[in-house]
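Record pair follows.
FIRST:
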Amino acid sequence: MSAVLIDGKARAAALRAEVATGVAAFVATHGRAPGLTVVLVGDDPASAVYVGSKGKATREAGMISGEYRLPADTSEADLLALVATLNADPAVDGILVQMPLPKQIDSDRVIAAIDPAKDVDGLHPINTGLLVSGRDGLVPCTPSGCMLLINEAFGGSSGSNIAGAEAVVIGRSILVGKPMAALLTNASATVTVAHSRTRDLAGHVARADIVVAAVGIPGMVKGEWIKPGACVIDVGINRIALPDGKTRLVGDIDFEGAMARAGWITPVPGGVGPMTIACLLANTLKAARARAGA
């Protein structure tokens, strides 16, 4: 058996096209484009790249892109004041504060200060509660993208084909692991949340029809653990050194080993990554529609 590669780039491109069509309709109805504002505190190179790519994608979708780049010594009070200003700005439909934040700023306090209706990262406690209770809200972008890929692999868009499947989510972060488990539970999968300290991780993975790995440890999930025919979603993005001095990106799953056993698998890069920004755009359009009563 050789797994079918899940093409995250192609699925993300399709979603971005859907969003662009929706944005054009929104503009025609409401006379303005949805607005997404991203806030970056400090000069972390990776974060700066992410912010730049988000801005480019926002503009390509026909939305208004706002950006604030604040110095690393910005106080928590100043950041909270900016968030309050953006909350009150009717032209801003989505607010994203890029993580991580400098140590003098409490990330939880900043997330809680964002208007839940504009929380396009889906991390506000109200949006978390809506997700866990199975109600409609803004869902974190990476898990949302994973769910779209899983649904596509299972041949459906509603999640009905996932019902009853055994799923293992490896990782318990608020960004990926916990919301991913909630989404799968809401789709009626039987979900196990595992992590780096789980006993007999191999045994849990071996029973799973769906494996989502988001733990940040290169190759932690061995190929021989994978149940034949399983759908394997690798969220990990780890840069490792090669013997020749170069580096390459790998996931949390032994790709070559898993490829021989899985039914479907995401590559790294080119799998989950492109879906995150596409789902951010979709969340921004959803937020704009909700705020406009559309």
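SECOND:
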Amino acid sequence: MSSSASTSALRSPTTPLADQAGTTQAGRPVRGVALFPQNETARAVAAPVLLTKVTKLYSGQAAVDTISFALNPGECTVLAGHNGAGKSTLIKLILGLTRAESGRVSVFGHDTGSRAAAAIRRHIGYLPETVALHPSLTGQETLAFYARLKGLSTAGNAELLARVGIAQAARRRVGGYSKGMRQRLALAQALLGKPRILLLDEPTTGLDPASRLLFYEIVGELRNAGAAILLSTHALAELERQADRVIVMQRGRKIADGTLSDLRRHADLPVRVRLTLQDEIIDTPAGWQRAGPHRLERSCAEADKISRLQEALSMPGLTDIELETPGLDEMYAHFLRREDN
């Protein structure tokens, strides 16, 4: 799957479909009626996925508790939380695999339990946390099987297998694949049809570093082409360059939501500034600590970062500035501790 091909197919929510269908008032599919927003105003404001005050119970316990958020085109949203936080349940709600007790989950403006949403589902790519592929099928046969399930042509399957790096194993049985190869094949099936919505549950499990880089490259291509991406993971550190937005969940509730800059401001964890000076330090400036003959350092609040940098730039003989901001792992741990206290 080439970047240019992805871009042309994903850029607009109104890309014509070979088999596009709508619904009558009675809920029956009608060919030729658009399922996606057709005018510019609707397209500008419509989020591909919208959850509004959604609650899901299992045995009387809230797996998801009054959750609201939207997934936007061209945005990669990271869903962070411990096991049992409700991440996988949220993905199942978006897929329509389970129904909420209250609230609304919509895909392109349609309730996920409706017939219209069922017709749209072919435009959703899903990679589950646990990949179960039939061991007797080859990689080529597996991808063809999932393409037919989605009602898609198999014409681009060979290119897709090459894109995820397993073209050389396409005719081998999946039972002989390594864990990483099975994960790549599962990613290929999630990318069938150039999805406009991509739901990825622990997607880099079993991937080596090179395969992870390839995975994030593909995700970046789809995001830049306009796909709405939800990525649920425990591997937070590797996602700082990928995340446009982070949602932190705990015990079914959303406890933080925003860009990395937003989360840093809300967490207010200290930022460390380190300076290197040309001349040996004789008098240590107020508020700074000496960290060597030519080095100074200090911590400051996120809100004071600009002021401290301006102060540093005014120091004579400044040769280098290092800025160490809290990582996603640190902020995640901070929000969980805050809720527990």
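COMMENT: The longest strand covers residues 61-71.
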